[in-house]
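Sequence and fold
=================
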Amino acid sequence: MIASSDNRDDRSGGLPSEAVAPGGVAMLVDAGLPLDLGLRALSEDVPSWRLHRVLARMSDELAAGESPDEVLSRKGRGLPRYIRGLIRSGVQTGQLGTFLTEFLLILARRRRSLLDLLLLAAFFLVSVPIVCLSGYLLSVILSRFRDIYNDFGVELPFLTLLLLQFTDVTFLQFLVGGLGAVLVALVIMAALRLIVGAPAWKRAYQRIPLIGTSSRMRNLSEFCSLLGLLVSGQVPLPDALEITSGALWDANLRAGSRKLAARVADGDSLDGGASGLAHFPAELRNLFRWEDRGAAFGEMLRQAGVVFAARSRVQLGLLWFIVPPLALLLVGSILTLTVIGLFMPLVKLLNELS
């Protein structure tokens, strides 16, 4: 087990910049430096400020002479269970540097995916007031044509009558209607999630092409990367699955990992335990068949995590490639129907006057 240092030199005030990078964590710990420096480096790169403070405090306690077991158990109450499990497993297997490094890489992928999703959400959120404003401006134009039609007493076709229904709608009404539709959709989705349960809702959402597929691939990447990391470190499979479940954001895989951990602890194989669970797609069950390969199985899972992450980015890229042209096509179609609806009565009027 890696012991903490009793004395801190002048590095206690901060770490070199290269120590903060993911590779720097492995260099610190694998080079035989104290565990407190490894935790200090990890604290500098985690995205959560609360987690940063907890890890920094643990580093200070280790530097003050506390034992790693005492810090992780008694002093680490503010630390998520899966991070305590990762650190403890890394210390026990002598691969703490590798564990911390790959954990930071997993966090980096998660942050990148969340940024892509936030940008996509911002795109749709900004689109609502823009569409409402466009609808309001169109209603102003339609009101001018309505006055012309009334002055000449032109018989209006159905499409024109339909368009003229929007002439009395104000911008505020358009905006309230657009935001109300978004709110109703969110409420319906939340209600369905409560009715069917978070895991089943997640599975249904992930069947949606592109955006759902991207989410599924991203979560499979996290699962394979974390489980493969622990398996490569020779952590027992039930413990590895329990630790992995705590780190996952995906409610479906999190619930499935806990159930699978219980089955494996009872003597089932990974493939056999997962065969009756709807939480695991075919991509994972095919990987579970290689469980008997030992350390090679862990490396296969880690490589699969990289592949799933790449597939997630491809799906998001396709989404950004397809959505803007579809939006332009929709806007163009609406404008075309509007022009046709407005000019059909004018054409009829000109024919009658001629």
